[in-house]
């Protein structure tokens, strides 16, 4: 809805008036791009709450939970603990009209975007609610640039805190959270949050809506078969995404014994009731990094980004098509993909480059 | 004796970035030069500068070298606190981050920064960048914002295409308050050829220092809006040989950021 309250950004914005009108209409006719808080609550209440074995393959989990038109909440942060194995399986299966929600991500989004460019009948992304889509040191994301520049994707821009707060609101079961950012920037005008007067201080305060992805996808260091998960290094926004999502698919480097979880319950960052599938997948964030397990494979990021940038500059899809044929459609599993692209000694090297950062299993 | 010719533009930025950080502070860093500048400060005049990396760490010890990005697992090495984005942005919003150390593609005279797109429109940008990421939140709620940019006329513009990271807005005294943000706002802009601050009364960008061999007029030529000139204007301090050694062998030994050329496509 519209509150009629804004900062002074309205007086200085350079964004075109017709675009502002269009963006304002999104606030006025606000719709959740995933489950509503009520739907998310109902789904949680309807779940079996016992400690049951939720182990399955990622292929089975994606087959069961990922459907056309859904909002996929992507965990990790840029190149760290990114759920690439799950994304890889989504690309294999295909899904149309997806919405993506995340704070910052790199190859997960670009893999989906590339699959759409190669064959939009198989996989397509219609919009993203996000803070950041790129590769950091390696450069900006060529396929985001292509899709945005050709109006092929609808975007809803927040800060990293804003998107994290949106998942956290979902995780808390509240419809929005106040945050002290976005106000005074153009995001105040173009995203779907709204400015309000704080009922206690009377000061302008920005509100961001809860985000409940239909399916949250998160990769962790370790989990038991029920879905109690441990994360070392950056938690990113993974606990919040898992908590907020209607269904959560967890891939884990290793499945550990439930008694190991019970020994240090403070280390559980994601509790079992919010998890629907536990998928053991070593190197499940490759070519990204997992603290305590392995470091980035810069070489693969550069290779894929290079192929995408060639497409953006030339419009020729051949390189992209070949990449997907070689590394997705002619592989049966993510393990096959890894075996095809990374020599064993390189994997050992990536493990060494992590430097043995300590984890507790 | 180090001369201007011995120092490449990114080394000049990193060294100047280090110089403006005070000791006993918390710095919320972006990828690249902010990390390098902060590492140099820790090795020299500000050993008790502590870093926040936005994926969720506080005061890590970077004994595996420079993290390649703020999400790099190495940015969590020997931290005192390792959680997620919510935790460190909460800390920031609460008032415990002294400096935001961020970049941008465009900046205006009031320190508003754009990192969302350049050219075209929001709906159909000529070049869409990754987006705000943490920058918008850092500029809003860290106490002081330090921007790092290469000095180019196309970057120092009259109006940015899109305000991603709030500065002083239109320069009015209550712009930030009406925006609902908490930090005091723009503090320094560090470039390869000049160091800028802001005039307290007008909140406009002010030239504080320029590269030896340049002049205030030459700096104005590189900027598309009218600069204020500080009454105490002076030349930028050059790094010593020891500083250059630290930057080249300890902070960014592979030259990922320091050896780049100042030309972009």
Please describe what this structure looks like.
The complex is a heterodimer of chains A (361) and B (265). By secondary structure, chain A is an alpha/beta fold. Chain A is 39% helix and 19% strand. Chain A contains 15 helices and 14 strands. Chain A has helices at 9-12, 17-28, 37-45, 58-65, 84-93, 107-118, 142-149, 160-172, 187-190, 238-244, 258-263, 298-314, 318-329, 334-341, 344-353, and strands spanning 71-74, 95-101, 104-105, 123-130, 132-133, 154-157, 176-179, 194-197, 204-209, 215-223, 229-230, 247-255, 268-270, 277-280. In chain A, the strands form 3 sheets. In chain A, strands 1, 2, 4, 6, 10, 11, 12, 13 and 14 form a 9-stranded mixed sheet that branches. A 3-stranded antiparallel sheet of chain A has the order 7-9-8, with helices on one face. In chain A, α5 links the parallel β1 and β2 (95-101). The model of chain A has no long low-confidence stretch (mean pLDDT 97). Chain B is α/β, with parallel strands linked by helices. Helix content of chain B is 23%, strand content 22%. Chain B has helices at 9-20, 33-43, 85-94, 135-141, 175-179, 216-221, 241-251, and strands at 26-29, 50-53, 57-58, 81-82, 99-103, 106-107, 113-114, 117-120, 125-128, 144-148, 185-190, 194-198, 205-210, 228-235. In chain B, strands 4-3-2-1-5-10-11-12-13-14 form a 10-stranded mixed sheet, sandwiched between helices. In chain B, strands 6-7 form a two-stranded antiparallel sheet. A two-stranded antiparallel sheet of chain B has the order 8-9. The mean pLDDT of chain B is 96. At the A-B interface, α1, β5, α7, α8 and α9 of A face α3, β9, α4 and α5 of B.
